[in-house]
């Protein structure tokens, strides 16, 4: 399975997925990293692993369609079969959605549908809930919506700090995402056989 990872920032989830590919936990290959942020740390991580990097901002394109058509050109070039969003902070448009139906997944740091958006960890912590978690879901046209594939719960302890809670969320993400990606690969293999 040829995988493209999309990331806008730090790229710790990208790293966890790349490690899982290396150890064989994921029976697939990351054929490209795409970033909309030319200074994203995820790019450094990909370069260190010799994974091809494609990076340009939508600002350099005439429209969202133009932006996504440019991305699509690379996805087709690398024969990508699965798009994995890992901290990619943009809404996916119709061009990519219609080209990759049920083949774009996202990870979000809350128990969706609670706390969608860019600050799921902080929002849950500030709300004072006793637990939050991590969700992996198929992507649709919304912000952190689309059919849920898997969730794990992460408690918020009474004397927790945001930093400690955030760390546990990321640990949960780094375990869950590789596992779900491998499950998807396994399911697709079995579908092809039957
Ligand atoms: C992750 O916590 C991911 O769940 C979140 O961005 C972070 C990226 O971290 N995504 C969203 O909030 C999507 N709405 P990373 O760059 O270290 O992987």
TrEMBL record:
Keyword Transferase: yes
Pathway the protein takes part in: Purine metabolism; IMP biosynthesis via de novo pathway; N(2)-formyl-N(1)-(5-phospho-D-ribosyl)glycinamide from N(1)-(5-phospho-D-ribosyl)glycinamide (10-formyl THF route): step 1/1
Segments forming a coiled coil: none
InterPro entries from the UniProt entry: Formyl_transf_N, Formyl_transf_N_sf, GART
Reactions catalysed, as given in the entry: N(1)-(5-phospho-beta-D-ribosyl)glycinamide + (6R)-10-formyltetrahydrofolate = N(2)-formyl-N(1)-(5-phospho-beta-D-ribosyl)glycinamide + (6S)-5,6,7,8-tetrahydrofolate + H(+)
Key words, A-Z: Purine biosynthesis, Transferase
Pfam families from the UniProt entry: Formyl_trans_N
GO molecular-function terms, A-Z: phosphoribosylglycinamide formyltransferase activity
Residues carrying the site annotation Raises pKa of active site His: 144
Known EC number: 2.1.2.2
Residue stretches making up the Formyl transferase N-terminal domain: 1-181
Residues that hold (6R)-10-formyltetrahydrofolate according to the record: 64, 89-92, 106
Catalytic machinery residues: 108
Cellular component terms per the entry's GO annotation: cytosol
PANTHER family linked to this entry: PHOSPHORIBOSYLGLYCINAMIDE FORMYLTRANSFERASE
Family statement: Belongs to the GART family.
Cited function: Catalyzes the transfer of a formyl group from 10-formyltetrahydrofolate to 5-phospho-ribosyl-glycinamide (GAR), producing 5-phospho-ribosyl-N-formylglycinamide (FGAR) and tetrahydrofolate.
Protein name: Phosphoribosylglycinamide formyltransferase
Annotated gene: purN
């Amino acid at each position: 399975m040829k995988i493209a990872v999309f990331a806008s920032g730090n790229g710790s989830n990208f790293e966890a997925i790349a490690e899982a590919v290396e150890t064989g936990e994921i029976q697939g290959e990351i054929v490209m990293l795409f970033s909309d942020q030319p200074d994203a740390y995820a790019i450094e991580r990909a370069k260190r692993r010799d994974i091809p990097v494609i990076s340009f901002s939508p600002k350099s394109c005439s429209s969202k369609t133009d932006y996504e058509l440019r991305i699509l050109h690379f996805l087709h070039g690398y024969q990508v079969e699965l798009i994995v969003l890992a901290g990619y902070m943009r809404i996916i448009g119709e061009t990519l959605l219609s080209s990759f139906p049920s083949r774009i997944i996202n990870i979000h740091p809350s128990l969706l549908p609670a706390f969608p958006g860019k600050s799921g960890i902080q929002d849950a912590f500030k709300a004072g809930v006793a637990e939050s978690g991590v969700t992996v879901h198929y992507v649709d046209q919304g912000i952190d919506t689309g059919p849920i594939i898997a969730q794990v719960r992460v408690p918020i302890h009474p004397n927790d700090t945001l930093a400690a809670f955030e760390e546990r969320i990321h640990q949960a993400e780094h375990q869950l995402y590789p596992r779900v990606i491998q499950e998807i690969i396994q399911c697709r293999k079995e579908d092809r056989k039957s």
